[in-house]
Structure formats: C-alpha cells, structure tokens
Design goal:
disordered N terminus; about 400 residues; alpha/beta; single chain; 2 domains; Rossmann fold; six-stranded parallel sheet
C-alpha cells in the first residue's frame, strides 16, 4: 500500500463530516473497508497501478464507418461529427444489427455502445418501407440520465432525417410525455416504470414495435425492474429484433434473455473488470472529522479539474456540494430528491465545465458518458465492489488515463 500525500491528521475534533453515520458492518476488521449499507470490501481492492496509455494496444477494426453501408445523409453526419474509426463494440455489433440478428453485446462502460445500436437503428428506419404509423423501436434504460443521453445521441445522429423520438422517464410531468407520444414518434426511449405507467393509461401501443433494446440490462435488474420488464415484454410482438447490452451476465439475465432473444449473436468485448488506465488509490483518514477537510484540500489541487465525488445519502451529497461551493469550489449535486430538469442542468454544467465538481449518489454511477473526468473520489464507500467498478468507470473512458480515490478509515 502506498503511503501517499492524503494521509490524514490524527485529531479529535467532534465535528462529523457531511452525511456521516457510524458504520457497524465491518465485523471487527481494521482498515475501514465497510460502509453503512453494504458488504465489507478489502481496501486493497481500491489500489491499482494503472498502465500508461502508451502501453495500450489499440484495437484494429475490421471496418471503418464508411464501410457499413449507411445512407448518404447518415454518413455525412458521421463525417461532420468526426466519426471515422469504430470502437470494438461498434465494429462487431453494427453489422449484426443491420443484418437483423438478435444481439447480446457485452461491453465495458465507455466503449461507445450507444452508437453501436443507435446508428444501425437509424439505418433500418430509413431503409425499410411500408411501416405502420407509430413507434417501431423501444429502448429501455435503467436511469433517467441514461435515457436522456440515448435520446440526445439519437437526435444528433438523426438530424435532418425526419425521425423522431420521445423520452418517457419518471421525475418529470407525464402530460408532456403524453403529448410527445401523440406525435407518433418512431422511437420510444424510457425507463421501465414510466413505460409501464403510460401503457396502463393506454397512452403507449407496442403492437408495431420492430426493434427492442435493453441497455445496461444488468443495472436494470439490480434496480428491481425485472417485473416491469417482463410486463412490457408481454405487450411486444413476438416477431421482432431484440438487442441486449450489458456489462455483465448473471444467471438472472441469462433467464431473461432466453425469453426475449431468438438465436442471438453474442458480441463480447469486455476487458478487465476495472479499466487498466485508471490509477486507483486510497485516502486514509484517522477520524471522521478529518474527512471533509482532506477532501477540500484535495479538490483545491490544480490537476483535479473535473471531479466526480460519490456520497452515500441524498442529504449528505447536497450538503457536501453546498459546502464546497461556499468554500469557492464550484460544485453541483445530483441525487434522487432533485427533479429531472434539475439533474439535467447539473449534468450539463459539469459536462460543459461550468462547474468543476459533481457530487452524486449512485444514481450517476452507471450509463453516464461525461467526457474528460479527471478523477472519481469515493467520499463514501460503495455498497459493493460491483458498484465501485461502475463508479470509477466514469473516468479513464475510451482508453484515456483516469484516477480513482477512495476514503478508507484507519482503525
């Protein structure tokens, strides 16, 4: 274990850090690898010496984007956006989707999987004729943020092609979504709970669905969406193309895929469970009172220019962000008590560089593609090692170097 510059001062001030609650689940272990909600995690698992980007062996694709046979308008959009060489999941999945196959795609976060299904879907929508009016594509995602990100990508790639999408997620006015559905968009993007609500109200008709996409399938099951997913699957036509994108495959996901996929092609481009380009280390602290002071000093360092800080509770996350802002560190918070517009404004401010620090609960741990995050800091430890992997996957994306730090109490 490295003895780094984050070693805490040993003092006995009585002030507790933001959102702190004493943990009783370490089962007598020293090292503070536990948290209030989850299992003990060995602190050694938070330490990893990253390889340099130069040592990374770049994937050599079989295709360029120009080789996929997209329509001229879509190729022009790709050229304007600088898309020339596909990532591995794009290179392998796009031809299979365009050929009409059901696909299971296993890929790490930050590998470009959204474009891997959005681009062939646009191609299929523009080249197939005599389609009934109404939605032909249903895309399900676990979180509002991921659904919004998919919608933004679809709109950007489909610009000028007279293809329309509607986003159906909780946390926003359902009447606006009903009005959007009345325009008969070709693509519906939503979270399972809100999609089920709209279906029960008779506002969604899935009879003409030709393509189903489950994005972050493992996360949807982790969040308890399996009953809603099964409900929605029963409303879809049996004859359809189904695509399942996931970082992991569990027995529960296998059972789900057995019921929804027909002779699928599997595309697996997963690498190690943590990015080899993420430098991981711990921040030892002696007492809870030290924790906030240490975080403030760390964030003031010039190389911490775009930092995602994870906390455990909604209350603690908001209070931490407010306090950092008062100290002159530009911060925003994102958590479940915020409305969807508030969450989107916070994400945009962070993505655009208007704020340097985004403090979040695990609502932000999966699916968000925020470019150039320099550091992920686990102010509060995650509930499981799997959640840790998802959190730190916000940095070191697409082969870039990243940094992850985790506070660990020394006992």
């Amino acid at each position: 274990m490295k003895n780094n510059s984050y070693q805490s001062r040993n003092n006995s001030r009585g002030r507790k850090p933001f959102g702190y609650k004493r943990s009783n689940n370490n089962q007598g272990r020293s090292g503070g690898g536990g948290n209030r909600r989850g299992k003990y995690i060995d602190p050694q698992k938070f330490i990893n010496k990253a390889v340099t980007v130069q040592e990374h062996v770049a994937y050599v694709p079989k295709h360029m984007f120009a080789d996929f046979g997209f329509i001229a308008e879509l190729n022009k959009t790709l050229d304007v956006r600088g898309y020339t060489t596909p990532t591995q999941v794009q290179d392998r999945a796009i031809p299979e989707v365009m050929q009409g196959h059901d696909v299971i795609a296993l890929a790490n976060t930050g590998t470009g999987k959204t474009a891997a299904f959005v681009l062939p879907i646009i191609q299929l929508l523009k080249t197939q004729v005599d389609r009934p009016r109404g939605a032909a594509v249903l895309i399900m995602a676990p979180t509002r943020e991921l659904a919004q990100q998919i919608d933004e990508e679809f709109k950007a790639f489909a610009r000028g092609l007279q293809l329309y999408s509607a986003i159906c997620v909780g946390g926003v006015n359902i009447q606006h979504q009903i009005r959007e559905l009345a325009r008969h968009p070709q693509v519906i993007i939503g979270t399972p709970g809100r999609l089920k609500d709209l279906s029960n109200q008779g506002k969604l008709d899935f009879r003409n669905t030709e393509i189903l996409v489950l994005d972050e399938a493992d996360r949807m099951l982790d969040m308890g969406f399996l009953p809603d997913i099964r409900f929605l699957l029963n409303l879809l036509p049996t004859k359809r193309q189904s695509l399942c994108f996931s970082a992991t495959i569990t027995p529960e996901i296998e059972r789900l895929m057995d019921t929804m996929l027909n002779n699928p092609v599997t595309v697996s481009v997963r690498t190690a469970e943590t990015s080899e380009h993420i430098e991981q280390d711990i921040i030892p602290f002696a007492t809870p009172a030290d924790k906030y002071d240490m975080l403030e000093k760390i964030l003031a360092q010039p190389d911490f220019s775009k930092v995602l800080v994870f906390g455990e509770t909604k209350w603690g996350v908001q209070k931490l962000a407010d306090s950092l802002t008062q100290k002159g560190l530009r911060s925003e918070a994102i958590h479940g008590n915020k409305s969807q517009p508030q969450r989107q404004r916070a994400l945009r401010a962070f993505a655009n560089g208007n704020v340097e620090i985004l403090v979040a609960t695990d609502v932000a741990a999966r699916g968000l593609d925020i470019p150039n995050v320099t550091h992920v800091i686990n102010f509060d430890q995650p509930a499981s090692y799997e959640d840790y992997i998802h959190r730190i996957g916000r940095t070191g994306r697409a082969g870039n170097h990243g940094n992850a730090l985790t506070f660990v109490q020394q006992r």
